[in-house]
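Can you give me the bound-state structure? Components:
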Amino acid sequence: MILKPIISPVDAAGWIKDGDSVMIGGFMDCGSPHTLISALKEQGTKNLTLICNDTAVHDFKTERIIGIAHLVKNKQFKKIIASHIGANQETQRQMNAGETVVELVPQGTLAEQIRAGGSGLGGILTPTGIGTEIAIGKQIIHVNKIPFLLEIPIKANVALIKAKKADKAGNLVYNGTARNFNPLMATAATIVIAEVEEIVEIGEINPNDVHTPSIFIDYLVKTEQI
Amino acid sequence: MEYIANKEIIVKRIAKMFKDADVVNLGIGLPTMVENFISPDINIILQSENGMMGIGVEPSKGNEDKDITDSGGMPATIRTGGCFFDSSVSFGIIRGGHVDYSVLGVLEVDQEGNLANYKVPGKMVPGMGGAMDLTIGARVVIAATLHFQPSGVSRLKRLCTLPLTASNQVNIVVTDLGVFEVFDKKFHLTECFAPYTPEWILEHTDADIIVSENCQTKTII
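Here's the bound-state model for the whole set.
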C-alpha cells in the first residue's frame, strides 16, 4: 500500500491559497478538524469560499467562540455555503452588513450536492425546497409526475476533515456523530487533508471497518487540539 | 376566558401519539421537550439528523463524549442497539419516508398545511438546517406550537406570511388549545383542551376551522 504523507498543521494549511474553496467537516463543532482550523487561522488566508454544515458557535454575549467560528471572526471568507448559521452571531452580522455572502442550503441537499460532486453525478433531484424560496431560479424536473428540484454538484479545492483513526495508507474510521459531513467531503475536493487522533500501522484496521477508503485521502495530520 | 400559555400541555399530548417502533425526529426547542413525557412502556426510536438512530438520555456531568451530540450540538448518548451514520444516509432516511413522525416548532402554520419556521426576513435568519428535509420527508409532520404569539395573534393562519419551510406538508398541529388535523385546505379540530371550548377557539383564530363531529374535550395530565 502507498503510505500517505503525515504532515504538520502548518504545511497542511499551506495547501490553501487566497480565493480557494474549502470544505470543512463537522456539525456544530462535533467532528470538526480543530487543529487544521487553528493552522488556517494562523495562516490568515482570505477570500475563501467555505462549504460546511454550519459555522459553529459565536455568542456575542458570552464571547464563546468555537471551531469554524474562529475563521469567520478572522474575516477569511468571502462566501459561506451552509445549512445553519443560527448559533453564530458574527456570521449573521457579516451577512446582514453585506461583508460576506451567505448561501443557506437545506442540510440534506447540501449533503447530496457534496456527494454528487464526489461521485461523478451531474446533480441530484430532491423534493426538498419545492414551493419555497429555495426553488427560485432552479430547474424543476418531473419524475412520474412528482416535481423535484435539480441541485447541482459542489466541489472544492481543499477539504479539511476529521476522523478518529487512520492507518498509514489513509483508511479512515470515524467516531459517533463526529462522522456527519466528513466522509462526503473526503470525496469532493482536489486535495483532501484528514486530521486524525490516532495513526496506526497498515493492517491494524479491519478492512470491514473502514468508513472512508484510503484513495480519497492525500495527507494526514495528527490532532494537536481537540 | 383568559388565555394562559402552556407549553407542557402541547408536549404531553404529542408524547401520547406514538406507538412502539415508531421512528421519530424531534426538532430543537419545544419539540425536544416531548421526549420527557413519552411513557416508559412505549419504545420509540429517536432519530437525530446529525447522524444517529436511538438517541438516549442526556449524559450526566463529567460523562459527556465530545463525539456524541444531538442535532443542537449538545452532549448526547446512544441507546444499546443504536447506530451512527453520515449526513447523506441521515437525510436519505428523512427524505425517503423512513421517519414516521417529525415534530417541528412553528412561527406560522396555515390551513393549507404550509409551515414557516426558519426565517423572519431582516430580523432572524438562522438557516433552515434540516427542517426543510424533515418537513417534506417525514410520514407525519406534527407542528408543535403555542396557539398565540406573545402579541396575542394566532400562529394558525389562513395563509402564512413568512417564507415557507415547506408547502402543504403539515398533517397535525398541536397547540395549547387543542389538536388540529390539516386537510382539504382547512384545520379540523379533533380535540379541544379544557377549559377552552371549540366556540372560543373559533372566535380567537383567524382561519377556517371545522369542528370534527367526534371532537372531544380533554383534560391533558
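A couple of observations. Chain A has a mean pLDDT of 97. Chain A touches chain B through 49 residues (CB under 8 Å).
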